[in-house]
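pasting Epithelial membrane protein 2 for the record, 167 residues
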Amino acid sequence: MLVLLAFIIVFHITSAALLFVATIDNAWWVGEEFFADVWRVCVNNTNCTEIDANFQDYPTMQAVQATMILSTILCCIAFLIFVLQLFRLKQGERFVLTSIIQLMSCLCVMIAASIYTDRREDLHRNNLGLYALTLDGSYGYSFILAWVAFAFTFISGLMYLILRKRK
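structre below
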């Protein structure tokens, strides 16, 4: 049972780490001489421009930013609640609250990655001043990590739903 508990904790911490990297790192859209994410666009590794209110479709990027941050926060809260429930739940009860919060985290990261997937082309086309050199790029590792984090948080949420507290 201790091995299962250790696996679940490591799995949850891995999910949180993936969310942190996907949210913070600047590699959602990459190419030879540029990289872009939900926070800024950098060309030649030195010329970085923050995405701000002057950005067309800024509310779309704010939605991606907000849901990624919310997902990361919810994942951390779910971990803290799991640790508390380890000591507070009675034997045989399920970790339902932890599961609900972790599945909400999963939903948020899915929403963020889906919005970016759907709107990326329009965002780049409407902001050619920033994205003129970035049209021939591809999805970067932060974007891929966001989708991997979605799978991890989903699996983790289901594990918490199935898991019962034992002695």
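The chain is about 65% helix and 10% strand.
Residues 1-7+22-165 form a domain with the Butyryl-CoA Dehydrogenase, subunit A; domain 3 fold (CATH 1.20.140).
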